[in-house]
Amino acid sequence: MAGQPTPQPQENHLLEALPESDYKRIQPMLEHVHMPLGHTLYESGGQLQHVYFPTTSIVSLLYVLESGASAEIAVVGNEGVLGISLFMGGETTPSRAVVQSAGYGYRMKSNLLKLEFNRSGAMMHLLLRYTQALITQMTQTAVCNRHHSIEQQLCRWLLLSLDRLPANDLHMTQELIANMLGVRREGVTEAAGKLQRAGMIEYSRGHIRVLNRPKLEKTVCECYKVVKTEFDRLLPDMKRHHQ
């Protein structure tokens, strides 16, 4: 935004965790990009031209059914990268990537990322550990959607989003949240109302402010802790940098 400093690449925790020599080598390959709310970075089945390293934005990975219905399978923010299929041996992905919280990030051409990955250095090891953590998030999301209440799912979604943002505020309509969670809007309205009456959040006109995070963490199901613990275990350098 006008008047605000441009986010630097190292505001992405993966990029910051790189050794200085590796970071300096790839820095000229990084292109600063705006990531507006609702923007689709790639469609399911589409050819991936870039990988994205968010800095101040959050992106949802969605699986879209033939009917057009969708559900979120993971969120990626300043802790990670979008486009893991490029360095995992594929050129396309079955998911859609949509910006759920507007902001900025950096992108890198796919051929350059693959060259860097094939160096078998720090970047490769960091990306592989991140991929394992992301798979854990996807797996736990599937379990959560099957076994836990909409209220617990909403708490998980809020906490995962907050972990990837610098403040306690999110701009997101109930309709978009319902699409992310793959549930009816009425269910989100009821769950958000319960959290608001309990003093955990304040919700108005697409703006959500978390008022009591400790209480939110007590209400959330075990899925949030499983995902966070795995990220901290697999990416200890990032955890140390951002405590």
UniProtKB/TrEMBL annotation:
Q: Which keywords fit this entry according to its UniProt record? A: DNA-binding, Transcription, Transcription regulation
Domain Cyclic nucleotide-binding residues, every copy = 14-101
Q: Does the keyword Transcription regulation apply?
A: yes
Q: Which residues form the HTH crp-type domain?
A: 148-214
Protein name as it appears in the record? Crp/Fnr family transcriptional regulator
Which SUPFAM superfamilies does this one have?
A: cAMP-binding domain-like (SSF51206), Winged helix' DNA-binding domain (SSF46785)
Gene source species: Methylophilus flavus
